Amino acid sequence: MNRFYLFFLSCLFLFSGISDAQDLQRCSTMEMDSLLRAKYPQLGTLQDFEGFLQQKIFEQDQLRKSGRVTAEVLTIPIVVHVVHNGETVGQGRNISAAQVRAQIETLNEDFRRQPGTPGFNNDTRGADIEIEFCLTRLNPQGQNMAEQGINRVNGNRATWTRNDIENTLKPSTIWDPDKYFNVWVLDFASSESLVGYAQFPAQSDLPGIPGNSPRNTDGVVIRYQSFGNTLKGTFPNMPAPYNQGRTLTHEVGHWMGLRHIWGDGNCANDFCADTPPQASESRGCPIGRVSCGNTNMVQNYMDYSDDACMNIFTNDQKSRMRTVMAVSPRRSTLMQSNLCGTFVANPPQPNFRAETQQVLLGGSVRFFDLSTNFPNRWYWTFEGGNPSTSTQQNPTVTYNQAGRFRVTLLVANSLGTSDTLKREAYIEVLSSGQCADKTNFSGTRTVIRDTSGRGYVSGHNGRGVLAVSEYFDNPLGYTTLSGATLRFGRAFAREGTNTEAIVNVTVWNARGFQGGPGAILEVKEVPLRTILSDIANNRATTLTFDRPVPLTLAGLGFHIGLELAYAGDTVALATTRDGEALNGTSWEQAANGEWDLILRRLGLNIAHDITAQVGMKPSVQLSTSALFVNPGESVTLQARGASIYTWSPSTGLNTTLGPQVIARPNQTLTYSVKGTGVDVCGDSAAATIYVRSVQVLGNEPTAETLLSRTTQISPNPSDGYLQIDLNNSLRGPVAITVYTMSGVRAVQRTFQKNTDEVRYPLDIRGLSGGTFLVEIAVGEDKIRKRIVKY
Fold first, then answer.
1. pTM for the complete prediction?
2. Final residue belonging to a domain, choices 615, 638, 656
3. Which of 586, 615, 644 is the last residue of a domain?
4. What is the CATH number of the domain that holds 372?
5. How distant is the alpha carbon of residue 5 from its chain centre?
6. Of 344, 473, 518, 654, which residue is the least packed, with the fewest Cβ within 10 Å?
7. Beta strands 480-486 and 541-550: pairing type?
8. In the annotation, is 251 catalytic?
9. Which residues form the PKD domain (predicted)?
10. φ, ψ for residue 187 (rounded to 5)?
11. CB-based contacts of 328, cutoff 8 Å, min separation 6
12. Of 105, 166, 192, 251, which is the active-site residue?
């Protein structure tokens, strides 16, 4: 069933031991993923990974169809780290070589769908993955191992917590993950009650991730009581029902990029079309179980069924795993290591890879040695790089000039020196990429109605959608977002064309559930009048944020979209037609506050017509103290990002030079500022100041309009400590009520207004971060304003 670097820990839990399948708990995949991403924010999201992988699956499929990629059986060298507490070999945690061999035989039977074994099935969806596993014959020094593929480690303790495994055991014992598939077999601490877990594959090694990062933890961890197969020998430390080797099969599936068959949610998506949706994990072997309108594939290795029940990987799962093995770091290099044969006494042969072959000016690239026959000396040269040479095994190089540059490597050991491996134009350094426009839109512009026909997918609709967004990836690590262009397809103003309504264009990080919108990074108020004018003139709405929005998690994605208020005004963004988007990038927030992909929720694969202006350099930014003023009323215009500023037109300005000017316009005007003196991405910005019509006697503003125009809430966004300023002639009791966006009353305060000017402090720091509506009522008159608490 159905974006990039994600560490994925998939686990099978027991409440009280390993003897009863009914004790199996829900997997802690998302918990462990959240912990690691909190430690290494550069790792990206599940959405990053899926966007990358789906595109690569398509590319690999096209290559196979064209005959440019031929099917071959892949062989992966395994090292099994048997972690014990001093026990004799074959006793307790120090499991025997026979038990290890039984497990690898089972793994091969399952991945090859071998006839005559429990790994075979008659399901037409079943697939031979054409991947085999061998116990490595050679250790990292090129020596033949005493026990093939087994590295016995005395951990000097009986049991291990996940924290100790990830921070101590793995980094101190791992063999080069570019050459060996590392598997640790140990005894988990009783507080863990685990059967096993795996590290999910990477989209790429992203710049900025420290060397002691997940590269030093890559592999699979299995409880020793579930490693082996009692059908292949007498292994008394392996109680049923997890005693036939399928724990490793399951976790290797994760290590190769597979999701749980139920998608870790109720009828959710595992991104493989030939695995039927199911409501949850299976227990025991409930063949014939029905959920989500389908007969569930409980025999699938990515379910939680008993070992004896499992026997199937599907063709789509095969395509996913084979693609990961072809394109993912520390997966694609394993088949080149040739560690299952006998050592040949020849000089080493050079080979290497780079974490990325495309980098922005001033960016850094880490190189990884993949040479065979165990070199111990390395001689690198980096055209255009700093340093230009290195003798480190895995050096990091910075590129400060644009172009395409050569990399060479020569390696040596006691048996001799290799020929020089030279790769011309291997690294591309982009200069124009310092500033970029990013969009996912490519297709026919339309305003699509949702599947119920009740409203617009991309804005206000009958389902009460609270917000819509478009996801943008950021693989090159742009650090700032300066502005955006949005194409609106529809807009309606309840109060007519002279409305003072505003629309909130919002930027979120992508740290929400499964890469959805997370924390709000910026909110820009755009007058609805501007949008109406742009639609009437068939042009997009262009905005500059008040400040450079920091994309602080370099290399990770972000969202741009709209927060929607249902006060009678209506806006809708233009999108592609259904099916024209390459990947699911459009999101919506339902009335209950939950975000989800529009593709998943409505079955519509669309992209919003939004363009993000990103860069590695600043842009000229412009903010205003007000958007609507009375004739001659002053408004402050503040520019940032350059050193010299020139303003136009001069009408109503106190000066045309400097970062800050005061404007007193008597009619609606658009003021522009041009910045010079520094190298910027965008050197100009503009803001329209709307001047209200002069009121005549007998046409005074109503009390409600007066309240709206004379009430300010600041700061916004805030940490929750607000000032509410009322500056009008209204008198009487004032009620302030704060509502969540789903309509729940969160805070209520009252006081008496006896003077024109009142400043009232409102403290909502006790509420969680998010968007709220503040209702202010003076007597019978009410207004509502939207605020953001971070």
1. 0.60
2. 615
3. 615
4. 2.60.40.10
5. 8
6. 344
7. antiparallel
8. yes
9. 348-434
10. -110, 120
11. 201, 202, 203, 257
12. 251
